[in-house]
Amino acid sequence: MRESFEDKIEEIDQLLDINRSKWQLDAIQWFDYDDVKQIIRIHINEKWDLWKQERPFKPWCRQVVQNQIRNLIRNHYLTFSKPCLRCKHYVSEDGCAFTRSKQQDDSCPDYAKWLKKKKKVYDVKLPLPLEGRVITASTELYDQFDYEKSADKLHYILLERLNNERHKEVYTMLFLEKKSDDEVASKMGFKPESAKKKKRYKQLDNLKKRFAELAREILDSEDVIE
Fold first, then answer.
1. 214 pLDDT band (50/70/90 cuts)?
2. Domain positions in the chain
3. How many CB atoms lie within 10 A of CB 16?
4. What pLDDT is stored for residue 117 in this prediction?
5. Which end of the chain has less Cβ packing within 10 Å, N or C?
6. Is the pTM of this model over 0.90?
7. Which of 79-93, 117-131, 201-215 has the highest mean pLDDT?
8. For the segment 184-208, what is each residue's pLDDT rounded down to a tens digit?
């Protein structure tokens, strides 16, 4: 008999409590860890069918919990944070190896765009106590990821889940060989929707949506981050 979400709620809550230390945004006064737990419970319930019940529950659930905590940190902090945190020229909280002044300033196009569009929201959304502590935590969060290995792992799992050989071929050409839509369509015999200057291929668009949905499922249910 398949186990339900309700059957596992105690184990879910235990895992949520165990991972409490991974929530690094305690200074956000309007959003605490109880809110985080409720959001993750709802998410697990919605993704329940992704748990293959012949496999142990806790490793799957632990990964979902940790992925969702990372996502919530990103959404509540990094969405409005300075682009410097993710930049190869980042030196320190205010330093920059790219600009002539060696400081983070609007001579950098990305920083200038952030000043214009996101800084006001950032200043309102994030209380001052976050500034020093969470910047450090956030850069550490990025530093511990190996993006190339994680991407390779995602590609491998996604290709394993595609049952159709033509779909595998399309995915490989688009995301591994970096071919253009026109090149893929020509190879696969896809016809454009109309004679517009910018061609659109309905079959290709539908496959891209399918690939994106599958990637989200994998990120939610598998240990992809290296």
1. confident
2. 6-78, 83-125, 147-221
3. 22
4. 75
5. N
6. no
7. 201-215
8. 999 999 888 765 556 778 888 889 8
Q: Show Cβ contacts of residue 153 under 8 Å, excluding neighbours closer than 6 positions.
A: 224, 226
What type of residue sits at position 172? T
3-class SS string, the chain: CCCCCHHHHHHHHHHHHHCHHHCCCCCCCCCCHHHHHHHHHHHHHHCHHHCCCCCCHHHHHHHHHHHHHHHHHHHHHHCCCCHHHHCCCECCCCEECCCCCCECCCCCHHHHHHHHHCHHHHHHHCCCCHHHHHHHHHHHHHHCCCHHHHHHHHHHHHHHHCCCHHHHHHHHHHHHCCCCHHHHHHHHCCCCCCCCCCCCCHHHHHHHHHHHHHHHHHHHHCCCCC
What values do phi and psi take at 96, rounded to 5? Answer: -150, 130
